[in-house]
From TrEMBL, chain A:
Cited InterPro entries: Brnchd-chn_aa_trnsp_AzlD (IPR008407)
This protein's name: AzlD domain-containing protein
Transmembrane segments: 47-73, 80-97
Keyword Transmembrane belongs to the record: yes
This protein's UniProt keywords: Membrane, Transmembrane, Transmembrane helix
Domain of life assignment: Bacteria
UniProtKB/TrEMBL annotation, chain B:
Protein name as it appears in the record: Branched-chain amino acid permease
Pfam families: AzlC
Family of this protein: Belongs to the AzlC family.
Keywords: Cell membrane, Membrane, Transmembrane, Transmembrane helix, Transport
Record carries keyword Hydrolase: no
Transmembrane segments: 21-40, 137-159, 165-182, 194-227
Topological category with respect to the lipid bilayer: Multi-pass membrane protein
Main location: membrane
Nucleotidyltransferase found in the keyword field: no
Subcellular location: Cell membrane
Upper lineage: Bacteria, Bacillati, Actinomycetota, Actinomycetes, Pseudonocardiales
């Protein structure tokens, strides 16, 4: 097996272990109370960090405006296609503006 | 014979899960296309690229691994980067552990395969209920996402080279994340977690891939927990 394939599938196996350890190996009731207290905040914290991380390496005004538009549209429509369409339109419109 | 005596066929597919996942698939399809396009010219080959996609079941770490291999990184570096990027899955696992606690062993091991941002966000937004109903919902959610995700890879392999360059596909996935985030912002602690998490991720962006996300997420979780205690 080549080093490339070993690295690729090694990462895949590591990913599975991260997923399964708290779902099947360590029982939920053994989690410390402080961890259980923090769990409801995992979703918003991670989603916000992922969103910012996705644009932070190549930040642009168009990307920031697109994500703001996506947020505003997401408040109004529960369908996730709506914020995505809004963001695409904003980036396309920004591309049409003279620089 | 009365129709009431005829048992209803067991419903194996949760239609709510398909309905909720469909727009998510639309959002992540461009990302899947991008990875398919990357695999089409990658030295590991199409079979290994697509095979690993099914296990990664997520784009960020898979794409990072593919790019690091092209750049000459060895297996330890690739695996370390993947662990850093996907460390958030531990948090998701911890958050969903109570839903999995009453499930059969096979489901806890097999269901873990489909734990990712989108399945976590949709499943955690539902109230806890009957374990069998959750199992059906989770399996439908994961299968729908997996099939759509891999289909995106295949389309990327085949059609990627002819997609117009002006299509801003890169913004689609972050926009879907925003759509998943907004429902969490109705509570004060949710807003604190998101704002601090976002600022933390931006501040830590210069760190290696994935580390900034973990730094931001942990900062947001700690801040929201402190605010939750004091309010």
């Amino acid at each position: 097996m080549s080093a490339a394939v070993l690295g690729l599938f090694g990462g895949a196996v590591a990913t599975y272990l991260l997923r399964v350890v708290l779902l099947a190996v360590v029982p939920a009731e053994r989690l410390p109370a402080r961890v259980r207290e923090a769990l409801p905040h995992v979703g918003p914290a991670v989603l916000a960090a992922l969103t910012v991380g996705a644009v932070a390496h190549a930040p642009s005004v168009a990307a920031v405006l697109a994500l703001l538009a996506a947020g505003l549209v997401a408040r109004r429509f529960r369908n996730l296609a709506a914020p995505m369409a809004a963001a695409l339109l904003v980036v396309l419109a920004a591309g049409l503006l003279p620089t | 014979m009365s129709s009431t005596l005829i048992p209803r066929p067991h419903r194996r597919i949760d239609r709510d899960a398909v309905r909720e996942m469909a727009p998510v698939l639309l959002g992540i399809t461009p990302f899947g296309l991008l990875i398919g396009l990357t695999i089409s010219t990658h030295p590991v080959g199409v079979a290994a690229g697509l095979g690993s996609a099914a296990v990664y079941y997520g784009g960020t770490a898979h794409l990072a691994a593919l790019q690091m291999i092209v750049a000459g990184a060895g297996p330890p570096a690739v695996i370390a980067a993947v662990v850093a990027i996907n460390a958030r899955l531990l948090l998701y696992g911890a958050a969903l552990a109570p839903r999995f606690a009453d499930q059969p062993r096979w489901f806890r091991w097999a269901g873990a395969v489909t734990l990712i941002d989108q399945t976590y966000a949709l499943a955690s937004a539902r109230p806890a209920g009957d374990p069998a109903a959750f199992r059906r919902y989770w399996l439908t959610l994961g299968t729908t996402l997996g099939l759509g995700w891999l289909a995106g890879h295949v389309v990327g392999l085949v059609a990627g080279p002819v997609l117009p360059a002006w299509l801003p596909l890169g913004i689609a996935a972050p926009a879907v994340l925003v759509g998943l985030l907004v429902p969490h912002l109705t509570r004060r602690t949710g807003r604190v977690a998101a704002v601090v998490g976002g600022i933390g991720a931006a501040a830590a962006a210069p760190l290696p891939a994935g580390v900034g996300t973990i730094v931001g997420a942990v900062a947001g979780i700690v801040a929201a927990t402190v605010v939750g205690r004091t309010s």
